[in-house]
Amino acid sequence: MTYQEAESFLLGREMFGWKLGLERMERFLAGLGAPQEQFDTVHVAGTNGKGSVTAMMGSVLKESGHRCGIYTSPHLESLRERIRVDGLCIAEEAVVGLVERWRPLIEELQCTFFETMTGLALRHFADAGVQSAVIEVGLGGRLDATNVLHPLVSIITSISYDHMDHLGDTIAAIAAEKAGIIKPAVPCVIGSLPAEAEEVIRARAADLDSPLYAADALVEVRHLRLTESGSEFSAQTEGARYEGLSLPLPGPHQVANSCIAICASELLGRHGVIPFPPPLKRALARVDWPGRFEIFLKEPRVITDVAHNPGGFQRQKWMWRHFYPDWQKVLVLGLVKEKDLKGVIGELPRDVAQIYVVPAPTHRALPVAELTGALAEAGLPVVPCGSVQEGVRAAITWARGGTKRVVCITGSHYVVGESLRGIKDLTK
């Protein structure tokens, strides 16, 4: 079997869609030899920020001397990005070996794509001899395939409207689904949450005797300096002071995410899992999480920024106002169907020079005509494009026509991932 054949088999599992529930996943893991029991885990849920916090926690564990796995989703350019050990993507030959060994079981159980990737990730981590793994929830929490873990720490980064067809149409309902990752007596760290969400989560934690830690109340940020390429700051907790922290992810929301990681890392340190105080200066400086308001090109200025719900675009709008207040800007935008389109449009900048509307390269893509029509109805200037590459080329051509112009490729992970290849081709 070649890697291309293995990848095709895995992506073919998408035909089974999303099937929330744990019974099949539990059977799958039993067949895999219960790999999740062979290493420690940190479990991360949240509407926004969970991928960033997963990357931060993985860096902390690695810099603490652990052989560490991280499991994230979706990917940008290759599904190998979803499974990493010590920062390195799973090798092609390892993917082939896993598929060849476990394909009969996967087909027998009719595992979905996400269930398959989750099980194979856990099996790979066990085979690779990791000491710990940071696992990002795929959808929700309570019935997500990753919720078979008994972690050292659970984390809920944020809660806002997203995936309402699966999780409910109120903040309280969504919070209840994400609170499903909380385990009896396992500490849980939360980010800043809406009052009604926090009430739900606190009640769940109390029912399960799970100690709850609110990062924004326990970590004080000082001497904050924000730039378009990252942040510098110090942090004070009850037990330690961290001077000269540097985070290569821009925006105050990423500083807030780092506070969640600091709080969770200190919990691991106090329980002897990693040193205390944790090596946060090295760990945060080495966080690698591409496509989050990342300056991909400086000349012309091209930014890639995954944003797929109103909260993501709200944070993006803050970045525009803070770092590029007098720049002309265009967006290359593509979304998937199940998102809050009205909410997203409400957060887009009204001074945008143009929006190049592109199809997300997935069967879940929101049709270009539908997105174009909704944006035009809101009074925004739009140009429909036949592909991501067409939109990228048009936007970069526009940016090269003047000074103080910036392009942002945004929306779905699929759009940002596909755009990277186009940018590289245009700048060879």
Overview of the structural elements:
This protein is α/β, with parallel strands linked by helices. It starts with a helix and ends with a helix. The mean pLDDT is about 95. It is about 40% helix and about 20% strand. The chain is globular, with a radius of gyration of 21 Å. The strands form three sheets. An eight-stranded mixed β-sheet has the order 4-3-2-5-1-6-7-8, with helices on both faces.
Reconstruct the topology from this structure.
Elements: H1 3-12, H2 23-31, E1 40-45, H3 50-63, E2 68-71, E3 83-85, E4 88-89, H4 92-109, H5 113-128, E5 132-136, E6 153-156, H6 164-167, H7 171-178, E7 188-190, H8 195-207, E8 212-214, H9 215-218, E9 220-227, E10 230-236, E11 241-247, H10 252-270, H11 280-285, E12 294-298, E13 301-306, H12 310-323, E14 328-334, H13 341-347, E15 354-357, H14 368-377, E16 382-384, H15 388-399, E17 405-411, H16 413-426
Parallel strand pairs: 1-5, 1-6, 2-5, 6-7, 7-8, 13-17, 14-15, 14-17, 15-16
Antiparallel strand pairs: 2-3, 3-4, 9-10, 10-11, 12-13
Helix pairs in contact: 1-4, 2-5, 3-10, 4-5, 7-8, 12-13, 15-16
